[in-house]
From TrEMBL:
One of its GO terms (molecular function) is methyltransferase activity. It comes from Deinococcus rufus. It is an enzyme of class 2 (transferase). CDD domains: AdoMet_MTases. This is Class I SAM-dependent methyltransferase. Gene3D superfamilies: Vaccinia Virus protein VP39 (3.40.50.150). The keyword Metal-binding does not apply.
């Protein structure tokens, strides 16, 4: 999201086929296990087409969901009907969060943190909007932990960012720790490239 307009155009263009291309039983399994732990008032960053909605507990108080792409949000809107909790969709470049402090019990993201150009800034915002003792739940692809694969990810990162709109070599868990969060990796797959984590402000 260093160039928010580029990312917006990219996801607007692919919204119609995104679900088909991104469909994955592995991702759905990880989302279900992770987002099943969301409680209370929830903020989702990078909601996309709303593929996460079915994985939330029915007892949520509310779900506020942000995305930069209007076309993705239009598809998410079609999934809102029938959900047992209120959903508020908003088009927003979520490098900043348009909410008061201590507004949410859970912040979630599914493959939405890897394109933010200033992770420390976003994580400070996440800390600000979370209520005391509450959590960030995130499913992310990260820099491969194996040496040579990590070097490959470093090499392709500029092209990856231009074509996909995010980074191939983001060290999300480490960046959260540097921002003062305690991080628990709850699941790790594809050789450690795909992780589910819970992060709590220290």
């Amino acid at each position: 999201m260093a160039d928010a307009r580029h990312v917006q155009r990219l996801y607007d263009r692919h919204a119609a086929t995104y679900d088909t291309r991104a469909a994955s039983r592995r991702l759905d399994t990880m989302r279900a296990a992770l987002f099943g732990g969301a409680t209370g008032d929830v903020l989702e960053l990078g909601v996309g087409t709303g593929a996460t909605f079915e994985h939330y507990p029915g007892a949520l108080r509310s779900l506020s969901a942000l995305d930069i792409s209007a076309q993705m949000l239009a598809r998410a809107q079609a999934r809102v009907s029938g959900l047992p909790f209120p959903v508020h969709l908003r088009q927003h470049d979520y490098q900043t969060l348009p909410f008061a402090a201590a507004s949410f019990d859970t912040v979630t993201s599914s493959l939405g943190l890897c394109g933010i150009p200033d992770p420390a800034g976003l994580f400070a915002e996440v800390r600000r909007v979370l209520r005391p003792g509450r959590h960030l739940l995130a499913l992310e692809h990260v820099r491969p932990p194996r040496g040579w694969l990590g070097l490959v990810a470093d090499g392709i990162d500029p092209l990856f960012e231009r074509v996909v709109g995010c980074h191939a070599n983001r060290r999300t868990a480490r960046l959260l720790q540097q921002a003062g969060f305690t991080v628990e990796v709850l699941d790790s797959r594809v050789g450690g490239i795909l992780i589910a984590l819970r992060a709590t402000p220290g």
